[in-house]
């Protein structure tokens, strides 16, 4: 998500489910080929290197644990939890360790195939809660009959230890910076980017923690988890950022893959600038679709001419830069929060009416509905407590994304506003800075990734044609690079695994259970 209080990343299925529940019933620098090759070699050496035997030999001690229902009418699930130990630095297996929080919902049937490991995206969203939500949504699916549903909080995230922490709740409420976009309102200074590293390190357990939370570290953890679960090969379903994690695992451990479902795909061929501009382009397209839907109603706050909707929206929200709209809790709704709230609703067409209701409120000088949408994405509780989702996303992206100079970051912001003018605050952009510019280590992912993989079985990429956050083209590219199958889903939302669509459910179940891939050109419609 491309706004200052939210990193320019995607919302995972867990966050989307929580957002839907929270709003229901409301009135309405390039890494280079050489460094990439070195990174891959390091990853391929990881499976059973010297000193890792004690980690790969773990047996998880699962104990019953309670999980919250995703919605009041959702079926209850019985879950069990455990903790997995992994080295913080895989090149120093005798050094500091991390503990990964793991949750499992046992298979409903008596003859399980094994575990289905899940990731909801982010990259900072917790997988434990996501596993419980997915098990509830798929309560009657043959998938939950044949697989144990397993979620884990990636290193630094959620209940895993050490946990990433960069800001206090009060700082988050005041608009703590989690991304450079949009520039021009309150940009990072060089001193602030240095301070960001200091306070993240102080609150997260040291600089060594900040150096070892990237996707390649998490992929190694996932292989240790696979072994600890007793699976010879990995079955995995990842949404959004989870597709990056799954693709990197496939690159590093191709012979350990049984099945990969990759939903709402990150494009492995697109570097940071290109991918983020693709996101903005997708969101502007969805904003225009939402505006066109609204225009059929006489009371539409964006007017009856969809071609003028962006200018109408700008006129409504740009004054919030100087004077926030009033809210019932006294916090007020800023320009950035208003755009965040509208963008959060773009993740599903079902949420468009809530965003429109929020825009109508702004027209009347009020901001409660859009602030609620913004808060739901951030995970803010009613008493002002924030989880570490987005702070973890910031830190993980510092290792995954290309490190930009101020010139490059400024160019990105200008390109982003050109691609998505609905989000443009109208102020001049002087100089933007990458918040990661003083991070303790260089990025470790490398672009492109997950290419030229040998020995990988068939994979299944699920891609929605109207996905505003991970455009369909990225799914096409990922399926092509992995040499796998593609299921195209016609619809207007981010991802499709938890959509409840019978066509998607049948295709995914057939692939996971029987390894039966959909035919070339297969399509579903939401």
TrEMBL record:
<dbReference type="InterPro" id="IPR051601">
    <property type="entry name" value="Serine_prot/Carboxylest_S33"/>
</dbReference>
<feature type="signal peptide">
    <location>
        <begin position="1"/>
        <end position="30"/>
    </location>
</feature>
<keyword id="KW-0732">Signal</keyword>
<dbReference type="GO" id="GO:0016787">
    <property type="term" value="F:hydrolase activity"/>
</dbReference>
<comment type="similarity">
    <text>Belongs to the peptidase S33 family.</text>
</comment>
<protein>
    <submittedName>
        <fullName>Alpha/beta hydrolase</fullName>
    </submittedName>
</protein>
<keyword id="KW-0378">Hydrolase</keyword>
<feature type="domain" description="AB hydrolase-1">
    <location>
        <begin position="116"/>
        <end position="496"/>
    </location>
</feature>
<dbReference type="InterPro" id="IPR029058">
    <property type="entry name" value="AB_hydrolase_fold"/>
</dbReference>
<dbReference type="Pfam" id="PF00561">
    <property type="entry name" value="Abhydrolase_1"/>
</dbReference>
<dbReference type="InterPro" id="IPR000073">
    <property type="entry name" value="AB_hydrolase_1"/>
</dbReference>
